[in-house]
Amino acid sequence: MTRPRLIVTPEHVEIRLEPAGLGSRFIALMVDLVLVAALSTTVAQLTLSLLPAAPGALVRALALLVLTWGYHVYFEVRHAGQSPGKRIMGIRVVDGRGLPLSAQQSFVRNVLRVLDALPIGYALGAGVSQLDGLRRRLGDIAADTLVVREGRVPEHERRVARARAFNSLRTPRVLRLIRHRVGLEEREFLSSLCLRAEGLEDRARFDLMDEVGRHYRAKLEIDDPHLSSENLVRGLTGILFSAR
Fold first, then answer.
1. CB-based burial label for 45 (10 Å; 0-12, 13-18, 19+)
2. Among 41, 62, 65, 95, which residue carries the largest CB count within 10 Å?
3. C-alpha to C-alpha distance for 185 and 7, rounded to whole angstroms
4. Closest to 103 in 3D by CA, of 125, 126, 66, 76
5. Which residues make Cβ contacts (< 8 Å) with residue 87, sequence separation at least 6?
6. What are 92's strand-pairing partners?
7. Nearest residue to 233 via CA among 244, 207, 81, 243
8. Whole-prediction pTM value?
9. d(CA 119, CA 31)
10. What is the pLDDT tens value at each position of the chain, 244 positions in all?
11. Ranges of each domain in the chain
């Protein structure tokens, strides 16, 4: 029986992670396999036309190895846990605590695909995930990762995103740092902070926003003296929710 994973952050924000179903994961895998096959075919055709037989065979073998193992690791680490197939199906891979998974976790879960794929068609992985309440295959259990569904963005989160749709934080460098350094727990905390800030007294709001803003100014290496702490916090929150 599938059960959600509930996480309570230090700020007492409850996060509910809904495990993705086998159907959506299987379709996502098929999409990714088709893309890997297409890339492999393209490389094969180029090597056949441009390289002699022996070097071409070596390049093709190396390309197939890199694409087979590196494709998933690249997208999971560089694109917030989503390969093209997972993005289409509205699912993503996260750390067991809801945070972005590390390169090491992605490597472990993908290396163990060779076991999950046994004896054919990911039968072992599917069987294990059916027995696991969080629908994890062997690779997920070993790496402490979880494939979750992306639910609909609640209206209050849409308001947070729209409030600061355009801001000075939208630079490639800052967006890259946000993707790698701001986790799910922090995203939920920032959303809660922005929504509750309106009900605080001015002084209390200023002090709280200043403290949180200084934290993220250092964490994201933001050097903009004209950007107030409150605008930094609201701008960061807008980016996090508009990118979902």
1. exposed
2. 95
3. 9
4. 76
5. 79
6. 148
7. 207
8. 0.63
9. 21
10. 667 776 555 445 556 788 998 899 999 999 999 999 999 889 888 888 888 888 878 888 888 888 888 999 999 988 888 999 999 999 999 888 777 788 999 999 999 998 999 988 889 999 999 899 899 999 999 999 999 987 544 444 445 444 444 457 888 888 888 888 887 778 778 887 887 787 788 888 888 999 999 999 999 999 888 888 888 998 888 888 764 4
11. 5-145, 155-242
Structure tokens at 150: 């992306």
Query: What's the rounded Cα separation, in Å, for the pair 86 and 109?
Result: 15
Residue 156: in which H helix or E strand, if any?
Answer: helix 155-163
**DSSP letter (8 states) at residue 147:** E
Q: What are phi and psi of 166, to 5 degrees?
A: -125, 125
* Paired tokens of 145: 């990762």
DSSP code per residue over 172-208:
HHHHHHHHHH--HHHHHHHHHHHHHHTTS-HHHHHHH
For 50, list phi and psi in degrees, rounded to 5. Answer: -110, -20
Provide the residue type at 14 as one letter: E
- Diameter of the chain measured on Cα atoms: 74
Report how far residue 165's alpha carbon sits from residue 235's, in angstroms, rounded to the nearest whole number.
8
101 neighbors 17 (Cβ within 8 angstroms): no
| CA–CA distances in Å: residue 207 to residues 36, 123, 210, 222 | 51, 55, 5, 19
